[in-house]
Write a structure and sequence with these properties.
The chain is 34% helix and 18% strand. By secondary structure, the protein is of the alpha/beta class. A 7-stranded mixed β-sheet has the order 4-10-9-8-7-5-6, with helices on both faces. Helix 3 runs parallel beside helix 8. The chain binds pyridoxal-5'-phosphate (PLP).
């Protein structure tokens, strides 16, 4: 059987990983500044993560959600403590798209409405409602297109005020738009969304799948705006590569038996992975590291004259290049052995582990200086 060929692949096969580094089959070493798309939060194969998974495997690896699993409670407790949302409830699932799908469903259960406001350049996943709320018609099949989604420009307060009303079930927005190229909702815009949602009985969904879990230096990016979300979707950095997702749910939303469900969500291995990630973020002060290194990188990147614009917060950074430098990402990968991310047309995205070191951050700037034929003072 052949694989369904949907991914454009680099001709590199990593076989080993540690911290911010990957090794391929030939023994070449790569600096990972992409984190497998913002997934590697605490560093590849962190010893506490590896040990937690191994020791869980020796005990029990799976049973269904029909029995008590106190690891889920431990994970929820630690997440409540670190995230600043101790009173929200946690529903565990397997991916970011599934988290958003459940968030839409919860909002709709609460207010009995169907319409959703989403924003231009948004990416919320590839399942039915999540992809319908994603601003990319190429990946929306006719089957997905039946949802009532209204796309508005981000930060356009008037457009939002003209659209929000008592027919809207939920408003979904990324803490920082990732796939769209690192674009921010302003603090005042998020505050307006929060206020108007409350007024009309719509629920505010913060998609923190990419921007959450400490990546920006705060646990959630929307916390810079001092707003509280009704529903928060999480995944990616949550399991450091082990598949796990979740929805944080406002305490006023009351569950009923069978309201949501999943076979694999919240399984023992996923919880062991998720708990170890939170413990490492806490013990190793990784949010502070993300804030400090992010500030350093952003300041340095702004000093390169050939970079058109730098946007970011913590270790979620994008910078725009002119067409003449469109090959930079490939050059960084093949000449300097450094993985980075992209956004169309010419944005390079940096989404490394939150445990990146200053030395590793410097190595990237030195490689960049070579490629941009500029000097950098470190
Ligand atoms: C903001 C955001 N939401 C949702 C998703 C979908 O997550 P998953 O691929 O785990 O379904 C992504 C994935 O890139 C994302 O960036």
């Amino acid at each position: 059987m052949k694989l369904f060929d949907v991914y454009p692949l680099f001709p590199i096969e990593p076989v080993k990983a540690q911290g911010s580094w990957l090794w391929d089959k030939e023994g070449n070493k790569y600096l990972d500044l992409y984190g497998g798309h913002a997934v590697i939060s605490i560093g590849h194969n962190h010893p506490h993560f590896v040990e937690s998974l191994k020791s869980q495997l020796d005990k029990i690896s799976f049973y269904s959600n029909s029995v008590k699993n106190s690891l889920q409670e431990k994970l929820a407790e630690k997440l409540g403590q670190l995230s600043g949302y101790p009173n929200h409830q946690l529903f565990l699932c397997n991916s970011g798209a599934e988290a958003n799908e459940n968030a839409f469903k919860l909002a709709s259960f609460v207010n009995g409405r169907k319409k959703v406001i989403a924003f231009k350049k948004a990416f919320h996943g590839r399942t039915s409602g999540a992809v319908a709320a994603t601003d990319n018609s190429k990946i929306v099949a006719p089957f997905n297109a039946g949802h009532e989604i209204i796309f508005l420009p981000i930060n356009d307060e008037q457009a939002f005020l003209d659209t929000i009303n008592k027919e809207i079930s939920s408003v979904i927005i990324e803490g920082i738009q990732g796939v769209g190229g690192i674009h921010f909702p302003s603090n005042s815009f998020l505050q307006l969304l929060s206020k108007k949602c409350k007024e009309v009985g719509a629920l505010l969904i913060l998609d923190e799948v990419q921007s959450g879990y400490g990546r920006t230096g705060k646990f959630f990016a929307h916390q810079f705006a001092n707003v509280e979300a009704d529903l928060i979707s999480i995944a990616k950095g949550m399991g450091n590569g082990f598949p796990i997702g979740g929805v944080l749910i406002h305490p006023d939303i009351k569950p009923w038996s069978g309201m949501l469900g999943t076979t694999f969500g919240g399984n023992y291995l996923a919880c062991a992975a998720g708990l170890s990630v939170l413990e490492v973020i806490d013990q190793e002060n990784l949010m502070q590291n993300a804030a400090d290194l992010g500030k350093f990188w952003i300041d340095q990147l702004k000093s390169f004259p050939s970079i058109l614009e730098v946007r970011g917060e913590g270790l979620m950074i994008g910078f725009d290049l002119p067409d003449s430098l469109a090959s930079l990402r490939k050059d960084l990968l093949f000449k300097h052995h450094m993985f980075t991310g992209e956004a169309k047309p010419n944005t390079v995205r940096l989404l490394p582990s939150l445990a990146l070191s200053r030395e590793e951050a410097n190595q990237f700037l030195e490689a960049l200086a070579v490629e941009l034929k500029q000097t950098v003072a470190l």
